[in-house]
Design brief:
The structure holds two protein chains of two kinds. Chain A is of the alpha/beta class. Chain A contains nine helices and twelve strands. Chain B is mainly α. Classes of the chains: A alpha/beta, B mainly alpha.
Amino acid sequence: MEAVPAIRVVDLHKRFGALEVLRGVSFDVHRGSVVSIIGASGSGKSTLLRCINHLETPSGGEVYIEGEPMGSRREPDGSTRPRPLAEINRMRRELGMVFQQFNLWPHMTALGNVIEAPMRVRGLSRREAAALGAECLARVHLSEKAKEYPARLSGGQQQRVAIARALAMRPKAMLFDEPTSSLDPELTVEVLAVMRELAADGTTMIVVTHEMGFARDASNRVVFLHNGQIEEEGPAEQVLGNPRSERCRQFLSKHLQ
Amino acid sequence: MSEALVAALNPSMFWEYRAVLLQGLAFNGYVFAAAAALALSVGLAAALARVNRARPFRWIGTVYVETFRNAPDYIMVVWVHFVLPLLLGAVLGRRIEFPPFVSAVIALGFVYSGYFAETFRAGIQSIPTGQIEAGRACGMSDRLILWRIVLPQVVRRMLPEAINQFVSLFKATTIVSLIAVPDLMYRVSMVLQQEMKPLPLYTGAALTYFVVIYLVSSLVRVVSERWRSKVY
């Protein structure tokens, strides 16, 4: 018997007016595995990630977090109905999210950013939260910056604080939305190093990325998205090393140079 | 000519009545504090209506803001004091009268809530969406995001403009003497009826307002800049 996947995406659709950005995407992410999502800009990668944690409400399909549907709930009589917003908020904390633009809260210190949601959402005391925050900042190697405000941190440091902030909710999986795309190359390295450590520790991760090196060495599976559909999916070495689809081959020939 | 000038600049008359006049100044302070509290809370509510997802709320917020932002404070003070009680009395079927202090606070509070609403709205809209999404992604509710992420930054960002509005509001408190709130200007006119020396009294009142407003607003600016510079 196969274990329940950490995340199961089933026939996900997303339309913005007449534009259909996602056209039926399905895949599983098993516990402790890393899935990289690659594809040209406009292929729907970021929208897919944002639909998974319902920052965008999917137009159709469902996302299951350890078997629990994200957007709807099963009633005792067997029918399903959409979850109210408050419940979706509660479900969302099971998924940590890291954004391209970091999105730290500038009026709080690094530690303040990390402990805010654990205190206000999970109800930890300040002391418990501070201990948790220190642990999370240590995981991203920023213990000495706990008291700094984001404006005084480099882009790479800000993104690592954002990773610590997501980890502090002890999520079942982490979602990364092009986490290094707004960073200089030398800052990209430090963020990718932290992400590799998380992957090695068995963190379940979905990573939307243009970093083919990271996709190859750090992920178990790679999903190639084209026009809102999965064009190719498989083990990293196969999709990146020996792609079957012509489109994927063309995409990689542009990005692997 | 030069005699009149000397008299105008001679502060002894003002000094003689200092106790009475400073009590009047305290009334300016009370009206200011109460009207500012009213303006800030109603202004925040109107701003939240104007950025609401639901169109009817936005519409009501816009009508509210435009109504009060375009109402002259002098007319509002008179209208609230003399007309509003009649209207309310007709609706409730009994005689209603507002004490002058209450009329002054309501009128100035509502006029300035229109200005504060716009300042709040601009501040709220200047917070990058990404920060709000980051809150959502952490499982925070909209209310929590508003109080913990949006408003603390809005307050910092709107401070310089808000200080200017507080100064205008304080200056506007001088017109409440029209409906017999015993503020500084009101007491100056009372003293005038006995002394018949308007020049030194008006000059003294003007200087007093200038010194108070200048000192307090400068101090608040310095403190607020120090606080803001920690983050931005």
